[in-house]
Amino acid sequence: MSGWENMDRNILAKIFGMLNVIDIIMGASRVCISWFLASHNRTLWKSINLTDLKPISLDDNPKKAEFLLDNNDEERRYQLRDILMEITKFSNTITTDLFLDYYYYIQEEDLAIIAERMPNIKKIAFTLWCDLNENSFQFTFSRWKNLQTLILTQPRFEKLDLDLRAIGDNCQSLTNLKLIRTLTRDLAEQLVCNFSTLKRLSFQCASVCNIALLSLIINHHNLKILNLSHCIYAEIINEIFGDEDELGLLPSENIIQTGTQNLDAFIVCSKDCKVCKEVWDIAWRGAGNNYKYYMFQNKKWKTDAIKELEF
Ligand SMILES: [Zn+2]
């Protein structure tokens, strides 16, 4: 009877497909030459999911003390950059889909590695925890000419004001965008002027300025689907970070009418939505409790955030 080392490499690759990425690059690929070769099978690297690596965690987010209260020292820890470098030795340039975990602390060097070594990215999801240099953003998205779907979140308490124009200007195939950050008037203007190819847009669980929203719906002529489920609405953006009494869980009648008339699908919640209440309690009433907020966003990241644009 032949041993594992003689097994057909395509079958081995199928079995490896059930392992997580770390187990392949740090484990299976190091067993023998046959497994090493099977680990390079193209089918393993087209879509890379780094959101389900527990109990393996990456020890590079300076904010981890705030949310990883159950840290276990026994866990193996890796640096994101090392993992990315290792992955790209196996994946070559064939990766089209890359999903990073909510907590990964992406820095300019990490984005540069992904951009340079994964130029064929069509779909990517990641979180922005820190400010990135504008040139770095420009460089990254100039490499991803085939980008079709982008899921990008910014934790609410990290008040970053990143200009997204470089994304729209470089990625002319971008049709699906999910942004978990506040829809301000400036952002609405960027979306209208620099993201004209967009057909599907989601701000699920984000905060939205009513004036910005109205301007976006009226002025973006290619937009077909707008998902605003579980959003918080405010008249002007300063109110979102200030007087909570002015906030609401429903858009105005005028907005609902305009959205329904201008779009194929305008998705908003009903007033008895339970998730909306959870978002309200955790993100707004509980403002200041970063731990609860991060945990909630992480849970949503693993369920709704990425799944919504899985097509
Ligand atoms: Zn809701």
What is the topological layout?
Blueprint: H1 9-16, H2 21-27, H3 33-38, E1 47-49, E2 57-58, H4 64-67, E3 77-78, H5 80-91, E4 97-99, H6 108-117, E5 123-127, H7 134-143, E6 149-153, H8 165-170, E7 176-180, H9 185-194, E8 200-202, E9 207-209, H10 210-219, E10 225-227, E11 232-234, H11 237-241, H12 253-262, E12 265-267, H13 274-285, H14 290-307
The protein binds zinc ion.
Number of helices: 14
Count of domain modules: 2
Rg, rounded, reads 21 Å
Second CATH tier, the architecture of the largest domain: Alpha-Beta Horseshoe
Helical coverage, percent range = 40-55%
- Can you give the mean pLDDT? 83
CATH class of the largest domain: Alpha Beta
Tell me what you see in this structure.
By secondary structure, the protein is α/β, with parallel strands linked by helices. It folds into two domains: 1-44; 46-307, Leucine-rich repeat, LRR (right-handed beta-alpha superhelix) (Alpha-Beta Horseshoe), CATH 3.80.10. The chain contains 14 helices and twelve strands. Strands 1-4-5-6-7-8-10-12 form an eight-stranded parallel β-sheet, covered by helices on one side. Strands 2-3 form a two-stranded parallel ribbon. β7, α9 and β8 (200-202) form a beta-alpha-beta unit. The termini are far apart. Mean pLDDT is 83; it is low at 65-74. Bound molecules: zinc ion. Zinc ion (ZN) binds at residues 229-230, 269, 273, 275-276.
